[in-house]
Write a structure and sequence with these properties.
With about 55 residues, the protein is mostly helical. It has 2 helices and no strands. It has a domain of about 30 residues. It is about 60% helix and about 0% strand.
Length: about 55
């Protein structure tokens, strides 16, 4: 093990986490403009039969 400054480690770790969130969750996909969470919601609605022609 090697000693590391807590401030330096927090900066590095936060930057790594923030970039992973931006890449995986926060940016809409260029193909359809949807974020992953919205795509999952629409897919689930389709699987459960919630379509515009049904109530």
């Amino acid at each position: 093990m090697r000693p590391v400054s807590i401030a330096d480690e927090m900066k590095r770790s936060y930057l790594d986490y923030a970039m992973s969130v931006i890449v995986s969750r926060a940016l809409p996909d260029v193909r359809d403009g949807l974020k992953p969470v919205h795509r999952r919601i629409l897919f689930s609605m389709h699987e459960n039969g919630h379509t515009p022609d049904k109530s």
